[in-house]
Structures are given as structure tokens and as C-alpha cells.
Design brief:
Elements (H helix, E strand, L loop, with lengths): L1 E2 L2 H21 L6 E7 L3 H17 L2 E7 L5 H12 L6 E4 L9 H7 L11 H8 L8 H12 L8 E5 L6 H9 L6 E5 L6 H6 L3 E4 L17 E4 L3 E4 L7 E4 L4 H4 L5 E2 L6 H18 L5
Helix pairs in contact: 1-10, 2-10, 6-7, 6-10
The structure holds guanine.
Guanine (GUN) binds next to β4.
């Protein structure tokens, strides 16, 4: 069994990005610039956005945090998005989700200029991904593909089961795994899938993205399988300073001995998700996706 070290891989990618940023700046360009819009004060969202800003600093990006209170009117948020869409000093931006209930998330996402949609959530980016055009790909699937490539994991002709069909992880993951560069045969499983246990046990590559801690057990994994655990559920813990710890969708201790490769939680997919937003922002700054 080989552990897929997402933390070390993300660190290496950050160093590569930093080198590229230094080159851009030395050539007289301004540093890549990412903005994050944060509505309200949800604890999880505050933490994620703080990480995004810190990550930017570490690679030499400029970053901006734009805050609104929880009761912001949708029109005010949309006006800010239009302003950012037209700001030549800004390469990409994200609107941290979830949004308060009175704001229609799809309208907010569709208001973002696809060329600045470094989250890859806009339907234009999703559609371009589906037909294999250059696109911004959402950070978690982007990071997982990068792990598979960097660990030179065989995918061609293999059966990949993706458990979960969310717009930001399961669905785009399934599309990427079926693309010509990866060539897996893909099954998307979800909460209504029958005989899920047998289906998972038939996977050469199992990608667990359901957000149900400890759902994948030893009997659901084939001998020699590659297991990618996307789960990062916060569970209370008396052993950490923050008072919680992250729990994956896979029971690691049971499953790991059967695997050829497996990602741990924490230290697997999570750091790759974080660094992929930086990769997308660099692509945006260089105009690599939309010329
Ligand atoms: N909420 C949870 N994950 C994400 C993400 O990747 N991007 C944004 N904008 N919001 C999120």
C-alpha cells in the first residue's frame, strides 16, 4: 500500500507556482490577483476563506477579501460581481458558498464572468469541461486528477466508481475520469444507488465524495484498489486546539491494507483542493483558458 501524500504534493505545486509568479513579476507583469467574496460569518466559511488568503500570500499573489453582512440584498451582491468582472486589476474571484437562503446561488454563479470563475462553478466552465475544451475545473476534482498524474496511477480501461454527484465534486470528477487523457470507465453512484456495497467492491478506483464519515468499509473495497477519500466532515474532538478534527468517508485503518494507493484524511485531497484554486488563478492571470 502506498500513501498518497497530498500535503507534500500541494507543497511542491505551491513552490512551482511561486517560481512562475516570480518570473511573471520579473518580466514586468503585476502579480496574479484573487478576490474572495464572503457573506456573513459562518465559522467554516471564515476558516476556508482565511486559508485562501494565506495561500495567496505564500505564493506571491495579491488577494482581496470583500465582506457583506448576512442580510445583504442579492442586487448588491450582483452589482459587486459585475464590478469585479470588469476590474482589469483582478484575474479571478470566488463567492464563498453557501450563501444565505434569500440569495439565489445559481444566479450569483451565473453572474460571474466565466474567464474569472476560478472556482469553475459557472455553467460555461462546466460545459466546456464536459466537451473537453480548456476550462476552469473546480478545485477538488482538479486536485485529484493532479494526484493521479503525479503518482503515475494507472487509470486507462479501469473501472472508476465515484460515490457522490455534487456539482462541485462528484459530477465533474466523473466527467474528468472518462476523458480521453484518463480513459477510465466511470460509474456515478449516489444515495439512491442499489447494491452500493457490491458496486464499490467492483471499483479499481474508488472516489468517495459523499460527506458521510466512515461510510466506506473494508468489504466495499477490492484488493489492490486505488481509494481517494474526499470526505472532510468536522467532528468534535477533545484532542485538538480547534475542538474538532476532520473525518473522511473511508475507514482508513480497515481499508488501507487492501489498497494499492490511498489518500489519508487529513493530508490527502484537502491540501490539493486548496492549491488548485491557486493553479486556476495562475491560469487566469496568464490567460491560458480564455485567450
Ligand atoms: N464552499 C465549499 N467549498 C467551496 C469552494 O470550493 N468554493 C466556494 N466558493 N465555496 C465553497
Amino acid at each position: 500500500m502506498q500513501l498518497i501524500d497530498g500535503k507534500a504534493t500541494a507543497k511542491a505545486i505551491k513552490e512551482e507556482i511561486k517560481i512562475e509568479v516570480d518570473k511573471l513579476v520579473q518580466a514586468g507583469h503585476r502579480a496574479p490577483h484573487l478576490a474572495a467574496i464572503l457573506v456573513g460569518h459562518d465559522g467554516g466559511s471564515e476558516t476556508y476563506v482565511a486559508y485562501k488568503i494565506k495561500d495567496c500570500e505564500e505564493v506571491g499573489f495579491r488577494s482581496s477579501l470583500i465582506r457583506f453582512e448576512n442580510d445583504v440584498k442579492e442586487e448588491v451582491l450582483l452589482a459587486k460581481i459585475r464590478e469585479l468582472n470588469n476590474d482589469p486589476e483582478l484575474d479571478g474571484f470566488i463567492v464563498q458558498l453557501p450563501l444565505p437562503e434569500h440569495i439565489k446561488e445559481p444566479e450569483v454563479i451565473e453572474a460571474i464572468n466565466p474567464a474569472k470563475d476560478v472556482d469553475g462553478f459557472h455553467p460555461v466552465n462546466v460545459g466546456r469541461t464536459v466537451i473537453g475544451l480548456p476550462s476552469f475545473v473546480s478545485a477538488t476534482p482538479f486536485g485529484i486528477i493532479e494526484l493521479l498524474k503525479r503518482y503515475q496511477i494507472e487509470t486507462s480501461g479501469l473501472h472508476c466508481v465515484v460515490v457522490g454527484r455534487s456539482n462541485i465534486v462528484g459530477r465533474p470528477m466523473s466527467i474528468l475520469m472518462s476523458q480521453k487523457s484518463i480513459n477510465a470507465t466511470v460509474t456515478v453512484a449516489h444515495s439512491r444507488t442499489g447494491n452500493l456495497e457490491e458496486l464499490c467492491a467492483s471499483a479499481d478506483i474508488l472516489i468517495a465524495a459523499l460527506g458521510a464519515p466512515g461510510f466506506i468499509k473494508e468489504n466495499m473495497v477490492k484488493e489492490g484498489a486505488v481509494v481517494i477519500d474526499v470526505g472532510t466532515t468536522r467532528v468534535p474532538s477533545s484532542e485538538t486546539k480547534s475542538g474538532f478534527r476532520l473525518k473522511g468517508d473511508v475507514i482508513f485503518d480497515e481499508v488501507a491494507p487492501k489498497c494499492s494507493f490511498i489518500t489519508p484524511v487529513p493530508g490527502g485531497v484537502g491540501p490539493m483542493t486548496r492549491v488548485s484554486l491557486l493553479s486556476n488563478t495562475l491560469l487566469a492571470a496568464k490567460g491560458n483558458i480564455y485567450q
